[in-house]
Model the fold of this input.
Amino acid sequence: MRPLLLALPFALLPLAAVQVAHAHDHEHEHGSLEAHEHGVARLNAALDGQVLELELQSPAMNLVGFEHAPSTDVDRAKVAAARTQLEHPLALFSLPKAAACVVAKQELESPLFGDTPQADDHDDDHDHDAKDADGHEHHHQHSEIHAHYQFTCANPEALRNLDLGAVFKTFPATQKIQVQLISPSGQQGVEATAQAATLKF
Done:
């Protein structure tokens, strides 16, 4: 079943292309926030035999309420709290106990965690602090939080659903999650919300 995981990067290529294109467009003009939209996160999920991989990408705004480097104790506490919650993926993704999944590895990455350089530190001052037609202010920093998890599940047949309800409860500023899901039953793209948080494998 290796082809499933190998197919994932190709299946997600259009999404990656949109993000790269957006990053370049954003350098030159104040266009749509398609790749970095507050309230919207992305989840790539692949189930291959006993291995489940989940990759969550979200604007920091959804998880901590801001995107600048934490400068106060309150900011630092919010970042630490979000990181702690992300470090418990079995609770966050409500994997069924019957599947007997254990975390094989996990990686958390964000400029806010202090472990990677600020992604958008290039001269971005030109018009990013301007207000748009709706009066929303756009700041020049667009920090993301990336979480990658790999689980080994003793009973993968018990993984009938992926419940994202706890993600929406834990991070209420997240309004929707765009999901790319690859499983033995095929590939699907789904949009999850707090009201429709359960996806079928």
The chain is about 25% helix and 30% strand.
